[in-house]
UniProtKB/TrEMBL annotation:
Keyword Kinase appears in the UniProt entry: yes
Protein family per UniProt: Belongs to the protein kinase superfamily. Ser/Thr protein kinase family.
Species the sequence originates in: Actinidia rufa
Signal sequence, start to end: none
The reaction(s) this protein catalyses: L-seryl-[protein] + ATP = O-phospho-L-seryl-[protein] + ADP + H(+); L-threonyl-[protein] + ATP = O-phospho-L-threonyl-[protein] + ADP + H(+)
Source superkingdom: Eukaryota
Key words of the record: ATP-binding, Cell membrane, Glycoprotein, Kinase, Leucine-rich repeat, Membrane, Nucleotide-binding, Phosphoprotein, Receptor, Repeat, Serine/threonine-protein kinase, Signal, Transferase, Transmembrane, Transmembrane helix
This protein's GO CC annotations: plasma membrane
Protein name per UniProt: non-specific serine/threonine protein kinase
Amino acid sequence: MGLRILQSFVCSVPMLWCLSMLLLLYTASQRTALAATRLGGNEIDHFALLSIKAQITHDPMLITSSWNDSLHFCQWKGVLCGRRHQRVTRLNLPSYNLAGSISPAIGNLSFLRLVNLMNNSFQGEIPHEMGWLFRLRGVIPASFGNLSSLEFLSARENKLEGNIPGSIANASRLEILDLQHNKFSPGVAVDFGNLKNLSKLFLSTSGLGTGDVNDLDFISTLVNCSELVELYIGNNGFGGVLPNSIANLSTQLQHLIVGGNQISGNIPTDIGNLVSLNTLHMINNKLTGSIPTSIGKLHKFQLVAFARNKLSGEIPSSIGNLTLLTKLWLGENILQGNIPSSLGNCKGEVPVHGVFKNASVVSVSRNNKLCGGIPTFKLPKCPLDEPRKKKIKMRKQPSLASSLMNFPRKISYEKLLKATNGFSSANLIATGNFGSLYKGILHPSDQKAIAVKVLHQQSREAIKSFMAECRALRNTRHRNVIKIAVFPPIGDDQEQPRSLSFLQRLNIAIDVAFALDYLHNHCHIPVVHCDIKPSNILLDGDMTAHVGNFGIARLLQQHDIREISDGQTSSVCLRGSIGYIAPEYGMGAAVSTSGDMYSYGVLLLEMFTEKIPIDGMFKNGQNLHKYTKMALSENMIEIVDQKQLEEEEGTRTNSRTPMTMEKIHECLFLILRIGIACSEESPRDRMTVVEVSREFFLIKDKLLMRRT
């Protein structure tokens, strides 16, 4: 699709004067392997420039005549190098009447920041190898509004600056505008009313918010976009209130994402007019007032996310009309009153009893005045509606993980001995420097599995590790963070479980991301795990992943946060696992959440490629990150573990899943890209767990075809 659109785009601009901008329109999804990787950096640049020259067929001003061995390439006309590394940073060849095609070798100029080839006569396609040029900078020129035939414009995941030009509204045939993940100047001064065909507008994470009351005025101009299906404006820091006009957007609108801003005021009462809405994501704003009862009209709802706001009042019983609902996130508000029994109508995959038919569907944590529910959630009973009845003091509600932790605090050695079959080798899960981990069944009646850690008592470090784990887990309660861990059942032949399918691996990756999000962002004191790796991720019988082994975890006190932000180093002797430990730790850097994200990135790459980071194939500076990045586009299917695809194919043929192999391949690409972004060498270049969780949410929707 991208190639077809690009060709039509090039045809609409005969002289390719805007080529310098087009180079930025390739997202990281177009990155591919380079042929010259075995050469040194300067040799690569030299070779690339000669290849570019070779494909210039017309040079009337003899601009490239100086491109020969008589001069160092940094002295060639139109070429500018950085002083430190003598690598090409600018290729500036405008208005020289050059003709020919652009060599794919331009993608080897990995330090390139600026390309200016406008007002020439280049023809053909822009090579997709240019997706490697992640250092490119630029702005969207105002003259883009002259592209009257433009239907698709994607400049996502670049470092574009400046303003989004208002003239872009003149591209009247535009259907998809994707400008996510850039660094634009604050403010959206675009009147979208002329874009009658606009179906998808993606502006998330682009620095557009000013915090001003008028930040969202542009939404009213979208009312005329009757074809609008998706609107993503999250994580921009937008201020102001949601205009009532948002309820008058296209009745075809399916996905409305405004989370991660500073939006205040009420949710418009007529939000129920958006009858096709599938996803409404408003997490992490400053919304007040009550949840509108009109939400009950949105019968196609699958995800409603209002968590981390200041919403008050009761949960409207009309939510029970949303029978297709799979996720309802209401946590961290000031909701009160009885949880409506109508929530029992919500669709679920792991049924329990009572009004909550799926523990993964409903999240109401940190609403301390809510009451009702089932014992699993340990909410207080609701007070009787009697004027003189003494008000019942509300207990603080633990998270949904409390059901997993419902074990006695003290268990006798005899019970553990029996549960683990005498700590037999058949029950051994893993061994480490400080002890061994065994699986067992504590209560044969319910077959609920536990994991038992046996410390090496002769080791002083083992005792320290145990105490550190106790400190880290003292106040943690989350379904994906465990004190008592569980393990997937093993077949009768006592061999290892069969290979995990792609979907199972995806769910595990999401579970671990949720656990890290909780540890990093939602604990009273942030926790850095410091040892994320496969052997510390345990699975229960339902294939839910749980992060365990907090023996070297660190509580991130306030002084630790200051150290990290000031770029200081830590004197703490950090232990981790070779291949997973963040490179900055080896240079004495302070413990940080970005260190966990590096380990998580390596874990992701290992899960989906089945290549361990310390594999003997990684020599001479090569590693799992570089290996995956090099082959991500052209050879992606060759590097992924084929067993996951075989398992998924067998599952698909025996079920009615909407997944297709094409979708699986597409999602595999996106997942590996996340793994690469998390395992970047520089901590500043890594994704945060919040960004990862958001991307996985979108990936799973794409995989299960919950988005068009």
